[in-house]
Amino acid sequence: LKVRVVRSSPPSSQFKATFQESYQVYKRYQMVVHKDPPDKPTINQVRLVPVSFEDPQFKSSFNQSATLFAKYQMSVHKDTPSDCGENEFTRFLCDSPLEAEHAPNGPECGYGSFHQQYWLDGKIIAVGVIDILPYCVSSVYLYYDPDFSFLSLGVYSALR
């Protein structure tokens, strides 16, 4: 058995050279040990959308996100419909004291509040509400379609 420590951030040449092989081991592990289906969402099915009513992606997905939030809250937390309406959704997961900022040495998406949307077959199945800050990423909340609970999207989101 040979064990190698490979720098992942910033990615070293060894990391880049072994990435696909490492990913395949990870994927097989998830499928065998955690019973993940082979069609679990991939990086191509995840969108990082700034929380801003000025952003076209955010505006176009707002109703679908709010509806999913209500379905999740009523199913998982047994909230009443009045507890998880559009106003409650906006207050809880859209209004943020953080202001968007694009620093020259910062991430391409900038700093601020984001909805990390998980899409499957043209439909949002989960949303991770996150704050991207200069020295950390803060997971604020995650909600998902209870019909897809078998995908363990909370675990997937945390690892991602």
From TrEMBL:
Q: Domain of life, per the record?
A: Eukaryota
Q: Name one GO molecular function term.
A: arginyl-tRNA--protein transferase activity
- N-end rule aminoacyl transferase C-terminal domain span: 66-160
One Pfam family recorded for the sequence: ATE_C
A single Gene Ontology CC annotation of this entry is:
cytoplasm
Report if keyword Metal-binding is assigned.
Answer: no
* Record keywords: Transferase
This one is known as ATE1 transferase
Instruction: Record the organism.
Output: Ptilonorhynchus violaceus (Satin bowerbird)
Quote the gene name from the UniProt entry: Ate1
